[in-house]
Amino acid sequence: MKLWQGRFQSELSEITDDFNQSIAFDSRMYKEDIEGSIAHARMLGDCGIIERTESDKIIEGLRGILADIDAGTLLIDMKAEDIHTFVEGELTSRLGGTGKRLHTARSRNDQVALDIRLYLRRQAEETTNLLERLLSVLCGKAEQYSAAVMPGYTHLQRAQPITFGHHLLAYAQMFLRDIGRIEDAVRRMSVSPLGSCALAGTTYPIDRLNTAMALDMYNFSRNSLDGVSDRDFCVELAAALSLVMVHLSRFSEEIILWCSWEFKFIELDDAFSTGSSIMPQKKNPDIAELVRGKSGRVFGDLTALLTVMKGLPLAYNKDMQEDKEAIFDAFDTVKMCLTAFTPMIETMNVLTENMRNAAAKGFINATDCADYLVKQGMPFRDAYKFTGELVARCIELGETLESLPMSEYKALCEQFDEGVYEAINLDKCVGERLSAGGPAPENTIAEIARIKGLLTC
Predict the structure, then answer these.
(1) Residues forming the active site
(2) Pairing of strands 191-192, 219-220
(3) How far apart are CA 430 and CA 371, in angstroms?
(4) Rounded to 5 degrees, what are φ and ψ at 154?
(5) How far out from the chain centre does Cα 213 lie?
(6) Global pTM?
(7) Whether the predicted pLDDT of 46 surpasses 50
(8) Distance, CA of 22 to CA of 83 (rounded, Å)
């Protein structure tokens, strides 16, 4: 029987019933639904709205339903309209009239608004834990390769020397921001909508702060219309998750490049690669490619949420049932990607010699060569011109700046001397970049310690 059936005189069309149902996806919120109902039942008893004995029986009955679902002895009826109807119906079948008192001073509108907040709060915690696990792996790798010289790129052209550790920590900064965004969204959504009822509150003497505190929320929503119709937190979390996927996708793109024979900076473990059906030599970075591809899925979830909400008048509208599948899918996808991506990074083999060879052949110490002339008193623009001519000469002769004879240096500029070879040494070039945030190994080690201090798990 439908909770709202009293108004209607004819049976609901089977097509309408199927189209209206949400239990196929909201059943995953059964724990949160029961948790919210327990807090509500306790408040009803505390405020004398129902008898304390009835409140206690309802709480005991709800706990029994939760235990039975968890144990697998009670199966959720997938023909029920939604998880709220199923739980209340099961409670009533066990307690009779006492179970029917649970819905006093409550609507499904504020009930579902609460359930999704509680559920997403748990999902957010699981996601930040996975991000922290990835950060821990990145810190370990960055420490191991804090002095491993590689070329830094702009426009995908070799630009200046950095270290592999420094490069990894750039992604660590992104994931730290991701955690911060998710945590900020959770703080904003940690207000209880219970007591907003359908849209206009209730005439019962409820204690909204009582239920908010019981559910570990810092306050209750201050407007009953907004309490049931707010889904900003879904959009905000989807936006934060979309940025997680942007960062994972960018990282995946570099993994894919680094695995190629054209770069060969890393090799993925066999456990995180696949082969070709007809080309036996292939070792494909499928996890990275899938992560890169799944980013579009999460972006689509964000777009779906924005589109659903953009034209809705206050207060609740059935369109808002569409919030769950989108935000659930966004969390599911991000968690799946992080679960696969982290061990792939942890087990990859870093080919430091190939990185260093690429750095040596890319003239990425040209800026340091120009800086050497500047330190001899030459204006930077003049030094820049002479160094550019040196690079052209190296290319012509098939040399690098390190191997170019001093006679060639002096032929272009008399101010060069043997000290230039030390100035353009790649290790020295990196090691002297001690400006805050720079790639010097000691900077990398210090930043690793700072990041580790921020991790909670």
Answers:
(1) 155, 276
(2) parallel
(3) 14
(4) -130, 145
(5) 28
(6) 0.91
(7) yes
(8) 8
Alpha-carbon gap, residue 7 to 428, rounded angstroms: 81
Q: Are 363 and 288 in contact (CB under 8 A)?
A: no
Q: Band the pLDDT of 4: cuts 50, 70, 90.
A: very low
Q: What is the pLDDT of residues 182-225, one digit of tens each?
A: 999 999 999 999 999 999 999 999 999 999 999 999 999 999 99
Domains of the chain, with CATH numbers? 14-104 (1.10.275.10), 109-145+162-203+222-357 (1.20.200.10), 359-452 (1.10.40.30)
